[in-house]
Amino acid sequence: MSYSQTALDELEGGQLDAFKKSFKQALNNDSDDLLYSLAEELYSLGFSSYSETIYQQLSKKYPNDDGLKINLAELAIDADKDDQALNYLSQVSQQSPEYVRSLMVAADLYQTQGLFEISEQKLLEAQNLAPDEPVIEFAIAEFYFTTRHYRKAINNYLDLIKSGTLEMSSVNLVERLGVSYAEIGKFEQALGYLEQIKPVHMNSDVKFELAFTYFSLKNYQKAIETFEDLRDSDPQYSSLYPYLADSLVNQKRVDEALKVIQEGISIDQFNEKIWQKAGQIALMAGEDELSLHYLKKGQEIAPDDMEILTLLSDWYVSHQRHSDNLKLLEPILADHVFDAHLAYNLALSYQATGNVKKAAENYEIANHELADNPDFLKHAALFYRQTGEVDQERDYLKKYLALVPGDMEMASLYEEDL
């Protein structure tokens, strides 16, 4: 038995001191082929430093072996020694049989550094040199998938699947293709692929994508079943709760939806979107004060989230709590943040609290984007009627009646001003 095999046996048996001794003997006595195999085995077992020792020794003996340089580069990358890795890779010339492999390793390195354009260039250069190599096409597909360029990823995954490759490096390509279609909003195509995946092969992310695809196609019953399956297998997957709750709402099961979103809160109290959805559903369930509590919690977590801010402002306006609404929104004004809907809410609250000047200012700001909103136009018309500004009143009434010609009460007001 070789020293290399003895060392591996000792390592497997947990005899570390004996392994270290046999490892040294292997370095001094075993053939280069045995040492190379030992290095690969040790790397797969997570003993990279010993692999590096072997590759360094072999590299001194075979200084022109580019494969050894690339192996050392990969070890350097694993150890976060990027400069050292680049140094090894730079020694591989374009004429080397190992050049394509060096490009692949370099692409991985640049991607980990966030240099995505350079990483893509390396991958495309490798593909240009070896256009029929499926490993390269797979690497490009995975690059586009992880960088969220799903349309590009789809083309590569489709090419691989058409060639008969359904799995590579333990990655299910049908799953990747289905997820990619879902991410770009092509839900019918996504469903065709995602439904092909056997349940035993579905991880939490794929279950979520399948459920989300059913949700997006308005197949709420299937969405509920799949989200519930995900909840049962992985209750900590907090992103599912708002969508499961929404699916239940669409099935007119509001009370169940409220319980689900409250369950989501117990799972993840720092997810503002769960608090937001809880606020919306509590309002639907007639739990107005609970709705306010949930929306305020969401706003505490994410004070710059405009959706939550708008929902909270709407709550204050609809419940005639105009002072609270002004307290909420006036700091936004100070930061010169423009939003037509919030300006409309400010106008209503300033009007209700007797600040005519600021109410008028905000009605005019909101008018830039809400000129086709009947509720806004009606409120603005009545505001200007109250302040005696007939021209502005008639202008808003005219726009309103063009949208709601059957409102006889507002039509009669318009006729009065002729």
From TrEMBL:
InterPro entries attached to this UniProt entry: CellSynth/LPSAsmb/PSIAsmb, TPR-like_helical_dom_sf, TPR_rpt
Q: Which Pfam families match?
A: TPR_16, TPR_19
Q: Where are the transmembrane segments?
A: none
Q: Give the TPR repeat ranges.
A: 204-237
Q: Per its UniProt entry, which superkingdom is the organism in?
A: Bacteria
What PROSITE patterns does the record point to? Answer: TPR
- SUPFAM superfamilies this protein is in? TPR-like
Which keywords, in A-to-Z order, does the entry hold?
Repeat, TPR repeat
| Coiled coil segments of this chain | none
Q: Does the keyword Repeat apply?
A: yes
What is the name listed in the Swiss-Prot or TrEMBL entry for this protein? Tetratricopeptide repeat protein
What organism, scientifically named, is this protein from? Lentilactobacillus diolivorans
